[in-house]
Amino acid sequence: MAGPRGTRDRADDSLLTLVGEVPELVRNLVVAEVDAARSWVSKTAKDYGIGAGWFVAALIVVFWSVPVFGTAAIAGLATVWPVWLSALVIGAAMLLVVAVLVLLGLARFRRASQRENPLTAAKEDIGIVREVRDEY
């Protein structure tokens, strides 16, 4: 009789039938673990790559902030405010942009590091199999 997800009831199967199905079940488990590992690696690599991109963007903004302090800040706002105040306002705005970009990069790295590693699940499966093996 088939169960709700297409599985059949194995209560009436003989021991030899059940033992004969073990290699297929182990193969299915290994294939599922390898697929999970591939998925984890690709997602993690993508998140680390995007996070690194945000850090590169932050470094570019920091690099171009130096000329902004020297030219645009002084020239643009010096007509309204004192020279020192205009330079500080533009500099603070650029540092705010850098802080936002760094926070975006850190968020991606945290997201990547919190994802469950499928190798841990595989080790747990091996531990369960060893426990069952040791019992018999």
What features would you describe in this structure?
- By secondary structure, the protein is mainly alpha-helical.
- 82% of the residues lie in helices and 0% in strands.
- The protein is built from five helices and no strands.
- It has helices spanning 15-20, 22-70, 72-77, 83-114, 118-135.
- The model has no long low-confidence stretch (mean pLDDT 83).
Strand content is under 5%
What structural class should be given to the helix and strand makeup? mainly alpha
User: Can you give the mean pLDDT?
Assistant: 83
How large is the radius of gyration? 29 Å
Q: Which sequence of SSEs, written as H and E, runs from N to C?
A: HHHHH
- The helical percent reads over 70%
Task: Give the CA-based shape.
Answer: rod-shaped
Tell me the number of strands: 0
Mind sketching the topology for me?
Blueprint: H1 15-20, H2 22-70, H3 72-77, H4 83-114, H5 118-135
Helix pairs in contact: 2-4, 2-5
Task: Give the structure's gist in a few sentences.
This protein is mostly helical. The protein has five helices and no strands.
